[in-house]
């Protein structure tokens, strides 16, 4: 259905191939045990690493060099934000490769509202579902604004985009309409689009939840990024829940043309794609790690490498720069790639 949706929409070309689509995992940037609580340190670190990955210079990206773009006054701020308009006007450019797209999960935002009301199951005739649809969107868009602000404070010219507002919709939970023209136009203009999982309308169910992982898969099919990075709260994909002391990190997974996948590294699990246990939190309405692996496999079949690693680490910094190969023994994470 995603391929059909791509054919139905306007198809302006991006100025050059998108360098990277980044998924900021909800578990990495929020405190999932606390309702609507942002993990400020993790989010700040991820945004700083994104700035360094986008930088066109070899500088160290020190905070003193950052041109903050969040000029709004936050509640509790003692004074209005300082804006050096004269210095900014004299700048030739930002010195960034802004050909990135950011998609973030919801974490402790949205999932509670969606699961409590049953929005993901559909049925807008129900007052509870309709109220939950509104509540879910209030929650996820408020998180989107905070992430855009965090990126802007790092000097990244980011713009928030809601899939619902852009007209994305589903049919029986499968992507049916996905107009990416606004995303492409924003890339043309030098902005970094920031999308998120969202409550959307469904042709048969009335409504459901569109996950950020599905959004990334569709954008990868449409825009062919050089690589895709999933930043999570763990080092990658494990053969069982990572809380298990015997859990083994799967370093490399190959995907065949028919969609089947097999473990290449570590050698002790080679060829095994059945013994991987997937755990999903009870409140997660988007499928959690299972959805992530399945969508990553679709992306890998396109010839696009997918890196899954822990946010805020040296490994995530390397992944964002694309500085990872299948021979990188000192890199902690999971590479999902085509078997070709």
TrEMBL record:
Record flagged with keyword Membrane: no
InterPro entries found in the cross-reference section: AceGlu_kinase-like_sf, Asp/Glu/Uridylate_kinase, Fosfomycin_R_FomA-type
Pfam family, any one: AA_kinase
Documented EC number(s): 2.7.4.26
Record GO cellular component, one term: cytosol
Membrane-traversing stretches: none
Keywords: ATP-binding, Isoprene biosynthesis, Kinase, Nucleotide-binding, Transferase
A molecular function GO annotation: kinase activity
GO biological process assignments: terpenoid biosynthetic process
Family: Belongs to the isopentenyl phosphate kinase family.
Binding site for ATP: 107, 233, 288, 292
Binding site for substrate: 106, 111, 212
Catalyzed reactions per annotation: isopentenyl phosphate + ATP = isopentenyl diphosphate + ADP
Protein name, entry field: Isopentenyl phosphate kinase
């Amino acid at each position: 259905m995603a391929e059909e949706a791509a054919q139905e929409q306007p198809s302006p070309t991006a100025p050059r191939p998108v360098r990277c689509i980044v998924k900021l995992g909800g578990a990495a940037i929020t405190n999932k045990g606390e309702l609507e609580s942002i993990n400020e340190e993790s989010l700040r670190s991820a945004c700083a690493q994104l700035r360094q990955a986008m930088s066109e210079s070899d500088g160290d990206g020190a905070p003193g060099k950052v041109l903050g773009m969040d000029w709004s006054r936050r509640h509790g701020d003692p004074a209005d934000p300082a804006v050096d308009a004269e210095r900014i006007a004299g700048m030739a450019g930002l010195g960034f490769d802004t050909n990135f797209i950011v998609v973030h999960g919801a974490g402790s935002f949205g999932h509670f509202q969606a699961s409590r009301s049953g929005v993901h199951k559909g049925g807008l005739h129900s007052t509870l579902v309709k109220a939950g649809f509104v509540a879910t969107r209030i929650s996820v868009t408020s998180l989107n604004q905070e992430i855009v602000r965090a990126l802007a404070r790092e000097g990244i010219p980011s713009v928030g985009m809601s899939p619902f507002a852009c007209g994305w919709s589903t049919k029986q939970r499968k992507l049916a309409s996905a107009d990416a023209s606004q995303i492409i136009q924003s890339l043309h203009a030098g902005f970094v689009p920031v999308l998120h999982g969202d409550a959307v309308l469904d042709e048969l169910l009335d409504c459901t939840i569109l996950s950020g992982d599905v959004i990334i898969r569709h954008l990868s099919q449409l825009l062919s990024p050089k690589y895709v990075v999933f930043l999570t709260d763990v080092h990658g994909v494990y053969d069982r829940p990572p809380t298990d002391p015997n859990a083994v990190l799967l370093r490399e997974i190959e995907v065949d043309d028919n969609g089947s996948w097999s473990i290449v590294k570590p050698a002790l699990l080679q060829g095994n794609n059945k013994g991987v246990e997937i755990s999903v939190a009870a409140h997660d309405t988007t499928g959690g790690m299972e959805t992530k692996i399945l969508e990553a496999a679709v992306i890998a079949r396109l010839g696009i490498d997918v890196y899954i690693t822990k946010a805020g680490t040296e490994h995530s910094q390397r992944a964002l720069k694309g500085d990872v190969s299948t021979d990188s023994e000192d890199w902690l994470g999971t590479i999902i790639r085509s078997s070709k």
